[in-house]
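STRUCTURE:
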């Protein structure tokens, strides 16, 4: 029964085969994200027929499933996930990321046995890549001004991430953590571990990214991966303090390299008010809302 397992690099091929045939936009879907965060969230994956299933076990007593990705009978895949949870004596939740998914789950889950919870803090911000790259229009005038001022004030260069500059990119992350209290008593956080794992297997995971320097000094870095030929997801973006416009600049500079994708997913705001204002200010094309279906324990 225990067909879910921890993700391994060898799983990337079949996961990507399934993702390539689907219209998937949510940031949890790509294999790289699952792989680098699996220790933090206790993530397990499973290939059930032609479905890619993902389970998270970070909450004691409950298991969380993403909506099944793939082709076939969704009700059968959901029943498989439910059976897996119940066999382990766990309550369970299933997250829907679109109106269509919500309607499917409402049609197959027994009425009265599930609660529904909208998670605004976990809504994802998805932009047209052209919008982030070109910053056209009156609403993005201030962004263009920030970048113009950045270019005027600083002697900057950009580099695509590669093994030669990984250490400098990690330096940006370490400085950011020290500035924001991001390290715990052991010197690491879950995000630290995920970032280091991303660099360790950067090429094998199909990641890409950019490093921004001012006067030769690394001041900002960003990285992510494609979900499909349609959408790219930015997993991390860090900039050190004291460099005005660094975030706006690296966002724009990196977006210019991603215009072959229609969309760029910049993930959630996690309920952080400043981050929410910043992400809304770019005018997302889609605010990907998530509705969580949780079984009611009796």
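SEQUENCE:
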């Amino acid at each position: 029964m225990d067909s879910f397992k921890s993700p391994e690099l060898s799983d990337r091929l079949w996961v990507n085969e399934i993702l390539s045939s689907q219209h998937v936009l949510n940031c949890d879907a790509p294999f790289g994200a699952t792989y680098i965060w699996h220790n933090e969230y206790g993530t397990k994956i499973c290939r059930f027929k032609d479905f890619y299933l993902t389970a998270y076990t970070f909450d004691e007593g409950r298991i969380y499933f993403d909506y099944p990705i793939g082709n076939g009978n969704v009700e059968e895949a959901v029943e498989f996930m439910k059976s897996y949870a119940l066999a382990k004596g766990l309550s369970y939740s299933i997250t829907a990321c679109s109106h269509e998914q919500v309607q499917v789950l409402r049609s197959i889950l027994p009425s009265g046995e599930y609660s529904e919870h909208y998670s605004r803090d976990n809504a994802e911000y998805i932009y047209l890549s052209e919008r982030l790259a070109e910053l056209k229009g009156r609403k993005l005038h201030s962004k263009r001004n920030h970048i113009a001022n950045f270019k005027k004030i600083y002697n900057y260069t950009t580099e695509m991430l590669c093994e030669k500059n990984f250490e400098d990119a990690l330096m940006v992350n370490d400085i950011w953590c020290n500035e924001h209290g991001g390290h715990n008593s052991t010197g690491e956080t879950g995000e630290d571990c995920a970032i280091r794992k991303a660099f360790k297997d950067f090429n094998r995971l199909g990641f890409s990214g950019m490093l921004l320097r001012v006067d030769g000094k690394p001041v900002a870095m960003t990285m992510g991966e494609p979900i499909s030929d349609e959408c790219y997801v930015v997993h991390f973006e860090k900039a050190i303090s004291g460099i005005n416009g660094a975030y706006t600049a690296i966002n724009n500079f990196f977006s210019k390299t991603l215009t072959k994708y229609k969309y760029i997913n910049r993930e959630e705001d996690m309920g952080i008010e400043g981050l929410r204002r910043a992400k809304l200010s770019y005018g997302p094309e889609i605010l990907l809302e998530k509705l969580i279906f949780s079984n009611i324990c009796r």
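REMARK: The chain has ten helices and 14 strands.
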